[in-house]
Amino acid sequence: MPRTHQVAGRVRAVGRGGDAVIETGEGIVLAPGGLPGEQVELELTRARRGAARGRIIRLPERAQERREPPCAVADRCGGCPLMIAEMSLQRRIKESFLREACEGLPGASDSELVWVAAPEELGYRRRARLAWFGQTFGYRQRHSARVVDIARCIVLAQPLQRAWDATREHLRTSIGGQGEIQLSLSDAVVVVELRTSDEQRPELFDACSQLSQTLGIGGVSLRSSDTGKPAVWGEAMVGARAHDGSSLWGPAGSFSQANDRINQMLVEHVVALAEPAGMRVLELHCGIGNFTVALAETAGMLVAVEQDASAVDACRANLAARRLQARVVEGNANRPPKGRYDVVVLDPPRQGAKDFFEEADHWRGTRRIVYVSCDTATLGRDLRLARDRGYRIDRMIAFDMFPQTAHLESLVRLVPR
Ligand SMILES: C[S@@+](CC[C@H](N)C(=O)[O-])C[C@H]1O[C@@H](n2cnc3c(N)ncnc32)[C@H](O)[C@@H]1O
What is the location of CATH 2.40.50.1070 in the chain? Predict the structure, then answer.
């Protein structure tokens, strides 16, 4: 057993992962549950490579905007590390992530940081990834593969919570091993997707069938190996909500935005900043077409790139259903089709788009780059690469896509200097 001991410190900031960054006499320690400016007493838990970690045991001085979290299991679950802060403080913490990413870059100090608040602070999630381990159903704990038993989650939209109740009830006695559960709201029903690499008993198949027939459940799929096709009961397609309120169809498991109302505003801002009318537009990481169907309405020419073959098919079908034109290419966004583009819109996963930005030939002459990011660390890295090629920031917008969590969705526009 490693020896533990106690230290005192002050919280300097909340880091992008949601942990407090605490200055102590023994250096920086990361711990969940602290807010900027607070005086804390900590027990050091481990000091592997990188920063030391700890557990806050006392708060001699609390932040004024600290509050009792509205969820009874907030500290055990760890999925909503900012729930202990009033919304005004959550905003300042998340704005600081985007400010840090843009700090020192040309244009950053002249651009106002626009904040788009979430219309719903709770009950907003239309898609969620949960897990099971044995008979325990819940969320994976932060920094660990452990599953914390969660019966009720107040950031889920109500139909998702009802689907979660039904999933726990129907599968608890028949499921084994461990795996991931994705719940996606599809119009008015929920699609439940199970993924595991552990062998399952035949009873689970009966239970999935029963679950799929429960009120409020549109379909259930079970993928028990990485290679085989999933077994499906009921509907396997998910109808996400497009910016105009229509349905955007995609296979269960493909990416769709988790917060409808914020997504609607995100798409509107992407189009406003891209100014696609009559332009040659390159859209990278298009998924099932969330931005594509909005950009295609006015673009002079649109090429959209996506690596997931089933999302490419869905994107084409979503365009066709609206009689819109675009060339949707299955491929690697880091090596897009050669061509001259006026506008680039990109929305990479957390890893960002380093290879794309390093290869300037792809975007030479582009009038504007509209970068949607779910990770301000990789955003900051990529913005520096764009600066080195002569681009500056002219717009910065932060979207509170996931209130109570430390995740931030950002939108930055780059133009030539
Ligand atoms: C954050 S999602 C955005 C999807 C879409 N823009 C939306 O708003 O729903 C990122 C997408 O990029 C795709 N992707 C990830 N890496 C990629 C790559 N190297 N090349 C092309 N697409 C990639 C993923 O499959 C996923 O659909």
Answer: 127-241
